[in-house]
Amino acid sequence: MNSPVADTVPTVTDETSAQASTHGTAPASPPGRSVLVTGGNRGIGLAIARALAADGDRVAVTYRSGEPPEGLLGVRCDVTDPESVEAAFTEVEEKQGPVEVLVANAGITRDQLMMRMSEEDFADVVQTNLAGSWRVAKRASKGMLRLRRGRVVFISSVVGLLGSAGQSNYAASKAGLVGLARSLARELGSRGITFNVVAPGFVETDMTAELGEDLQKTYKSQIPLGRFCSVDEVARVVRFVAGDDAAYVTGAVIPVDGGLGMGH
Fold this sequence. Notes:
Blueprint (H helix, E strand, L loop, with lengths): L13 H4 L16 E4 L5 H12 L3 E6 L9 E4 L5 H15 L4 E4 L14 H29 L2 E6 L3 H4 L5 H21 L4 E8 L5 H4 L3 H9 L9 H11 L11 E4 L8
Parallel strand pairs: 1-2, 1-4, 2-3, 4-5, 5-6, 6-7
């Protein structure tokens, strides 16, 4: 199916075109790729950043408050603010080169039943989780187009596939990442850029640790594997999707949920 949008992708110079493989596959990524993980100062994002850094990549993480983690390039960024996003990418490019791998992980929750949810709570979650991911992917794609290669991974959630009472804003924002990834995969696939979605289920974090024992048992009883996921398990899947072994994987939704969302 021809798309008028594809015709709007900027042309690439002969010099950069020469980097593409004559067999139609993306060129192998050099060691020490420039990586950016949004919301990478804690939890899943930090585990992903650490895993990629352990492979020898140069990893930057964005954060909004507090201090950045040791051993990683910390860049302040509010993904809801286009100027903040531009400033963050400019800093990363100056210090470690154009972004070759983007993991869009920054997100928030404002849980509430729909009839009690404010317009602001709905809009803030969608603006951060969905629009923010679109915003950083758009900015990262500029450099990836010149390189004729790139990996973009959106961190979604099983909630975006299953739905969850009291999380209509969060579920909508995470489900939207699927359509976003698949649309961009079609737009930029010919330039060697892949877009994929990783959808974790219940993950062992400080928040889940605070759940009562009975509530934890209830949640785990719904998971075929009978346990919560670790942040490192999510990170290992992201590391695969962001690597050369997944060069022919794009537009995919990969659940890391112990089977909770199977069939969706």
